[in-house]
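note to self — DONT lose this again. spent like an hour looking for the file last time. sequence + predicted structure for the chain T wanted, 200 res
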Amino acid sequence: MPSRGLASLERARFGPLRTLNVRASMLSGEESARRVELWLRSKQVELAGEVLIITGRGAGSIGGVGVVKEATQRVLARLRRAGVIQSFGEDTPGSFVVQLASIRSLLEAPKRREKTQPVRAQKTASILGLKAETRDKLRYLAGRAIDALGVQKPSESQIQAEMERQFSMIVRTAPSGADSERWLDAAISRALIDYADTDR
């Protein structure tokens, strides 16, 4: 079957919201990896379940080495360690099926000393600028996260530090042009559901 027909079948299986085709963009390996990372970070907040990334096999690359495929595989491994994705594997020789991790996994991922590219600087984003309702939800989420670590009676400074940490991690996942507060609110709601499901 021609590769174009196979890609069409893959897209039909997952649908446009769950499919990223970096093969068609003719990007470099580094550019493709950055696009994959931004896309997966935003999809983690938007969706649950599996998504598809089409890289192509690299048959037309120098030496037959798939530069985009290899760069994608490296970023997928890093995002798994960072709590953005749960797992990934080849669907076809030119695509990966990726299981998104929960927001809770992202917030609880251990800090690692890895050399990573900055995802994106946010424009003047600050907790102080949030609506009171959003700030209260963020505070509650911070409390749930601290409680999950077994910390009894956290101090105000611990709560504030956790709020700042969660805020910065979530806001940077917002796609360009998105309302950052609405995005944050949706992510907090999903994270709280994750915590509630775990407690059952």
